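[job 0412] stage=complex_fold ligand=zinc ion status=START
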Amino acid sequence: MSKSRRDFFKKLAALSAAGIVPVKVDGLLSGESIPKQSGFTKESELKWYMRSYRRHFFDMHIPDWNPAFLSKLEPQTIVDNLLLEKVTAVALMFLPHTGLAHYPSKIGKVHSAFEKRDFMKEIINLCHSNHIDIVMYYCLLYTEWYWDMHPEARTVDVDGNYQHAIGVGNRHAGTLCPNNPGYRKFVEDQLKEISGMYDFEGVWLDMTWWPTVCYCESCKKRYHEEIGGEIPQKIEWLDPVWVQFQRKRQAWLAEFGNQMTDSMKKLKPGVTVAHQSGQFAWGSWRLGASNELARATDWLSADTYADWPTQSYINKLFYSMSRIKPWEHVMGWGYPWMKETVVTRTEEDLRCRAFDAFMNDGVMTFLEAFDPEGTLNRDNYLRGGKVFADIEKYEAFAGGEFLWDFAIYRSFDSEVPNRFEPSSRTELLGDWPVSAGPTEHLPASIAMARILKDNHFPFGVITRKDLNDLGKYQVLILPNVAMMSLEEVSAIRNYIAGGGSVYASKYTSLLTTGGQRLNNFGLSDLFGVDYVGETSEVVTYVRPTGQYKDLFDPFKEEYPSTLNDTQVITRTNGTAEIIAFITLPYTDPSGRKYASILSDPPGVDSQYPSLVLNRFGKGKIMYSAGPIEIWEYSTQREIVGRLLKMLTSKPLFYETDAPGTVEITMFNQPDRSRFILHFLNYQNQLPNIPVQNIHVKVNMDMKKPSQVLLLPDKKEIKFKMNGNTLEFVLTELIDYAMTGIIYH
Ligand SMILES: [Zn+2]
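[job 0412] stage=complex_fold status=DONE, emitting structure tokens
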């Protein structure tokens, strides 16, 4: 953007923030030439992120022991590549993992390639004059130079050793403690220095998670002052002392993250700040995620490298947690992830991933690492540009209110290992996420997302901050949410009383978030069962009974469905209807005695409930004694789909006969009187085989449709009304399609 144009936008933004002019700029820009980059479309608004659906992220974690490193950086070539890629914003690394400043810092150590030139100034000016916004990247906590210079700020593990990150090989970076006051001051001083020298629109702060469970002097001191005594050294989720320490870790990290954001916003009023958000995607207690930490980030952004069902779950979580939209998916175009620099993803792969973010109101940010000498592979930018050219056609139709019938509840406070087994001491060491058992809260949540996606049930993911809005969803899903606060229990109770439906599994509400194990579920009266114990058998069966037997087809009483997990033993406490019982194998699979040498077939029909359906107030609750959402095989996952459908009380936002390789998302844009439906075909093996004749039924909710359009070309699609349901056919889906339903 030219200087004058940039100033014009800024002044306008200030006036707009003060309520003096409306934020729409359509008319105000008339007379100005159309910018070369077309991010500033007719429907775009002032904030940089709202006009930015094509972004790039430069990795630049390169040391300076070799004078050739970063010696070939040519701003004009770099920007030419970005223009080929058609990007609207770029993240530039001011301070990477090396800890070496990429600008003439007077406080820290400057990378030798930048001692004699102000590269950042050159490239920022060039980007701005080409209408590319700048996101200033600064790495927190994982920086090598500061670690080398300041041993007192290093994280210290439970064995008393300094921690060097192990997440990406064994040389990622030295890790620093967010509780170290000297380090906090250093970061604030550098952010101040950068803010005073450069013009940028966004900030991206990397690595805002706990590098390990830290036992450094700063942590010991805080623990002693705020709790008293010594930091516990045993992971014990049934011990409130350990759980209290974990809550402190979450609070300390949230304080650190929010302090950095607040400092940045004071230094640069109007700037938007993101923190690396992988800790929310991956969960793991060790990283210290919390809703309070999420407050530090204006938009959620992470490089996740997840498979599609998992990514689909993350997309919805990031959507609901992002204060501003679009949220962001950063993805290296090396395959499978950033460890690879030469093998690049195919155009089809990039396209599916980019539209996957877009269809969830997110933005794809392609990441590429500079070659050590500072050069770039132009071919990648050409390929990325083809994908972004496709995204660009649809940008004017992005956004709106995401429509979900089902909401999966995600708790960052619900870390309970299966069967409450003590955790290994090695979990205290290391910096990467601890992998949870397959039936614990996070894996169970992701498994449930896969079932909802495959069934084409409109679903999202919500967290504690959404407790006051539960009424927006038909069904709330609590996948093994073992630890719950009184606030959560109370909100769910009110939601059900008011007519909401809940599916809950296994330990849900059996512990408080403070780590107190209760004698009974916090929600026992709603579940309609009391907690009694747990099977010792780790292979169990779900045996259908009564009027709902058919829902379990092809399974039946004699051939119940296998669950590779224990189940909670309960007894009904009132009116709950039993849908299925627990069947046990003939023998305990952990013993030597067997009924069949290679397997543990069902043998003992117990009278313990496995699945119950209860009513409370105007709502319905289904409680499952085992987390059946982890069922893997299609015949089993279809059962979960049928059971969940029973909990709905009105038509879903949409229904379709599309195959499971297709995902649909739907948004309402009431300001433009239209629904937008996104269709993505994403097959395991690319390029996609096109899918023909997808039938779609949309619940119009009393709105009267006037047109169904295939976007962006606005080609009319025939539709018919069946009562309140609009029906149309999408005749072909290759990779991505968008339809708009105009209503009045
Ligand atoms: Zn520490």
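The chain has 16 helices and 31 strands.
[job 0412] exit 0
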